[in-house]
């Protein structure tokens, strides 16, 4: 579990400094201490304190767990679920899950609390009525501190069953059979300094979305949907399936999970697997390593006998290719700059007009902004697979990596809203992207399509090659 001393704690007396000393007299019972009365009740009676969420997400989630293999607990959990729905109809409650869901190691159902009044009524009631079940009570904060909210700030009723995402780390990729040079030359990504949308945990998205076709929930779909059964949705609409956010893509204010997980000082998205490496060996000394970032963009490096030759930077529906020698690097690792909000990958910082796909200038009508904001090292929190092109199968480099999600044919996000806002004919919200299997894993050149121009430089026309000393 997380070390409590890994966090900072502001003084509880902030704002109460330099006041008169508190009295030391006792009340009439001779035991309790007399407090000075000022006639003003704490705001905490009326609203949750900052930074707790006060939007549609709710200030607290309550996960009520039961062991799915224990018939007595299953029966009690079902009865408690019905009782909650009947006695507290105003509370938001989700489906009754019959097995593990995402990071939750055993079956559960979830209740959301939006006000101190709801909290004050439901939690004492649950303490008395939870029976043999355990419950995790954790806050949702506008800071997006998922780890802290589920550990240091969390409260347990009964036996602890912490979510797996906060106590099981992904295996070290260097301990797997993935070629060492795939990690040695893996890209580093500069996220924009003002970007509010960080990389996200792949499995976490399934907790906050529901599969739909034509904006309607799919009947008969597996429940819960996990990375281990996501491909079963192919039988319920195939490429027409969208993993639709429960709050809606136009939610205002947006829920905290939209923001993803900001990389720490090490460059790691702590407790969030936010990247996937897929290796395709051509069998003739040529190897393609795809580095997929879980905001729907990627880099691909082509190697020859273990030596990097060229790198592809995906940019919306197109992209650019450069020789490895031409790229900016930190040691041996090429640098990618992520567009603010759009996350398109670029080889240099600054502004990038992408009105014409694959053709970038520092100014124009539709511009991506990049800079050196937060440095992200995607391979520190990644799954890794080998792709067998002849069999069209993914083979994990570690047996603990889920595989079935890579065979999902649907879209990772909401369908485009009909009549949604546009700018110069470009939709503000495009439909959710599809997965890695659709990104031309089998390609003749480093580019996914022809013609393929591999640039030997990465600069704007008003700069000189000498500036980069390549």
TrEMBL record:
Q: Which InterPro entries match?
A: DOPA-like_sf, DOPA_dioxygen
Q: Which domain of life is it from?
A: Eukaryota
Give the signal peptide as a residue range, or say none if absent.
none
Q: Which SUPFAM superfamilies does the protein's record reference? A: DOPA-like
Q: Which Gene3D superfamilies match?
A: DOPA-like domains
Q: What is this protein called?
A: Vacuolar protein sorting-associated protein 62
């Amino acid at each position: 579990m997380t070390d409590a001393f890994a966090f900072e704690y502001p003084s509880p007396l902030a704002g109460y400094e330099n006041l008169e000393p508190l009295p030391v007299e006792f009340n009439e019972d001779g035991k309790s201490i007399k407090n000075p009365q000022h006639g003003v009740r704490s705001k905490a009676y009326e609203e949750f304190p900052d930074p707790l969420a006060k939007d549609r997400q709710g200030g607290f989630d309550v996960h009520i767990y039961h062991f799915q293999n224990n018939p007595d607990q299953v029966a009690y959990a079902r009865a408690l679920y019905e009782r909650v729905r009947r006695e507290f109809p105003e509370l938001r409650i989700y489906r009754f899950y019959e097995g593990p869901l995402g990071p939750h190691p055993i079956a559960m159902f979830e209740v959301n609390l939006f006000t101190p009044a709801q909290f004050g009524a439901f939690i004492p009631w649950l303490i008395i009525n939870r029976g043999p079940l355990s419950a995790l009570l954790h806050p949702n904060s506008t800071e997006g501190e998922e780890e802290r909210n589920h550990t240091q700030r969390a409260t347990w009723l009964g036996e602890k069953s912490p979510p797996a995402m906060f106590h099981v780390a992904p295996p070290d990729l260097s301990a797997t059979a993935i070629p060492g040079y795939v990690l040695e030359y893996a890209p580093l990504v500069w996220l924009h300094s003002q970007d509010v949308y960080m990389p996200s945990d792949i499995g976490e998205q399934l907790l906050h979305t529901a599969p739909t076709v034509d904006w309607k929930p799919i009947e008969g779909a597996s429940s819960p949907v996990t990375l281990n059964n996501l491909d079963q949705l192919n039988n319920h609409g195939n490429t027409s399936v969208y993993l639709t956010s429960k709050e809606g893509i136009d939610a205002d204010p947006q829920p905290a999970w939209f923001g993803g997980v900001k990389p720490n000082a090490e460059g790691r998205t702590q407790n969030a697997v936010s990247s996937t490496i897929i290796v395709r060996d051509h069998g003739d000394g040529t190897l393609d390593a795809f580095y997929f970032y879980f905001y729907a963009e990627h880099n691909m490096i082509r190697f020859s006998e273990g030596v990097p030759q060229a790198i592809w930077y995906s940019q919306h529906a197109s992209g650019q290719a450069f020789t490895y020698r031409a790229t900016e690097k930190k040691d041996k690792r090429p640098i990618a700059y992520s567009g603010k909000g759009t996350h398109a990958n670029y080889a240099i910082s600054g502004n990038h007009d992408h009105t014409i796909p694959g053709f970038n200038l520092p100014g124009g009508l539709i511009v991506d902004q990049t800079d050196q904001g937060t440095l992200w090292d995607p391979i520190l929190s990644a799954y890794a697979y080998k792709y067998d092109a002849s069999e069209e199968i993914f083979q994990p480099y570690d047996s603990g990596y889920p595989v079935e999600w890579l065979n999902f044919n649907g879209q990772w996000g909401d369908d485009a809203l009909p009549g949604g806002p546009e700018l110069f004919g470009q939709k503000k919200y495009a439909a959710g992207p599809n997965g890695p299997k659709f990104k031309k894993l089998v390609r003749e050149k480093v580019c996914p399509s022809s013609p393929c121009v591999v640039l030997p430089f990465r600069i704007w026309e008003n700069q000189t090659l000498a500036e980069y000393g390549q």
